[in-house]
Design a protein that fits this description.
The chain is mainly α. It contains 15 helices and four strands.
Length: 349
């Protein structure tokens, strides 16, 4: 055997024990540590449900549960794409402005130019896709950090929206826009909730069974290793943000239908609320691990918290406080669990 072959054999033999020790450590994890990203928010939902059952039995009325679903619908759509973006070690703070810009273009085409709702909605989706793609190109071509790039683009899109709207509120849109936002199928299930659940189901397939999800996990878990395996990281980042922009446009359409109106200052809290839901659901804020089911649980948890605070007659500002506390508690808890496990992030959905 040559010296190079013998050295390689020795290196391989020497490297084996660490892999075995790591595998042994993973096998020793308790069941709750393996599924903590799902169990955590579920426990919070159960605790909230028990508390509301005691203090406000009306919380579980069918109509109120449907209101919770309707409130959560927009964030289901946004959360689907944000899960992939954050898993790939990105973040998008521009989604509120993109949603409103797409909705304003749709509204102007309908109100001022006599377009039908379907082609106008199609243009809105293209606008969202274009904005998301532009975000990705700014990040990858100019090497601007994701957070700063999307924060700057948020200002640009918001400014364009203010110019287009000229301070006006555009209202009263033809069907099916109101039906998508606030209609109910068979007078029971909110249409928007169906759209949100379909988006999450599509996201689950993309995340678990396609290269889009696998590459996002690889990039978020170890960028250098992903690059060495031949993954075009810049291209994948553009795909992630394009999907985010497309979903933001859908959210803008749902928001317009829900209110049957749109203005340039709408959607201000979309980014924070969506990121909160995704992180609370178990997606690692610094990439490498995500779960669509966890995102659904996180969205529902925050919608339930908001609804509970309204029923308990807390001011709107306390809803913001509650969201911030939940985010901090979730990140701290998941960081503690990861330290116990002694392992990095990974995709588990």
């Amino acid at each position: 055997m040559s010296e190079g072959g013998q050295a390689m054999t020795e290196m391989t033999a020497g490297a084996a024990p660490p892999r075995d020790r790591n595998a042994g450590r993973m096998r020793q994890l308790s069941w709750w540590e393996r599924y903590i990203n799902i169990i955590g928010p579920l426990v919070m939902i159960i605790a909230l449900s028990v508390g509301m059952a005691v203090s406000q039995p009306r919380f579980f009325a069918f109509d109120n549960l449907m209101i919770i679903l309707q409130d959560a619908a927009i964030y289901m759509v946004l959360g689907m794409a944000m899960t992939i973006v954050i898993t790939g070690k990105g973040i998008d703070l521009s989604i509120g402005a993109v949603a409103v810009l797409a909705a304003l273009v749709m509204a102007i085409l309908i109100k001022d130019h006599g377009w039908g709702p379907y082609p106008a909605m199609g243009v809105a989706l293209v606008i969202g896709l274009a904005c998301g793609t532009l975000n990705g190109l700014v990040i990858t071509q100019f090497r601007v950090p994701d957070l700063l790039a999307t924060l700057a683009m948020d200002q640009i899109y918001r400014g364009i929206g203010l110019v287009l709207a000229a301070g006006l509120v555009l209202a009263r849109f033809p069907e099916p826009i109101p039906f998508l936002g606030r209609g109910r199928i068979a007078d029971l299930i909110p249409t928007a909730a169906i759209v949100g659940l379909i988006a999450l189901a599509a996201g689950f397939v993309l995340y678990r069974y396609t290269w889009l999800g696998r590459y996002a996990i690889a990039i978020g878990g170890n960028r250098e290793a992903a690059q060495l395996t031949g993954i075009n990281i810049d291209r994948q980042k553009v795909y992630h943000y394009a999907l985010m922009g497309f979903c933001a446009a859908i959210a803008g359409i749902l928001l317009t239908g829900r209110l049957n109106a749109i203005q340039a200052t709408a959607g201000m809290g979309f980014a924070l609320h969506t990121i909160a839901a995704v992180v609370v659901g178990g997606t690692a804020l610094f990439g490498g691990r995500g779960t669509m089911f966890g995102t659904l649980v996180g969205v529902l948890l925050l919608a339930m918290v908001t609804n509970a605070l309204v029923m308990l007659r807390f001011q709107f500002f306390w809803q913001l406080v509650a969201s911030g506390v939940i985010i901090i508690a979730s990140i701290g808890f998941y960081a503690w669990v990861q330290r116990r496990q002694g392992t990095g992030g990974r995709g588990d959905d």
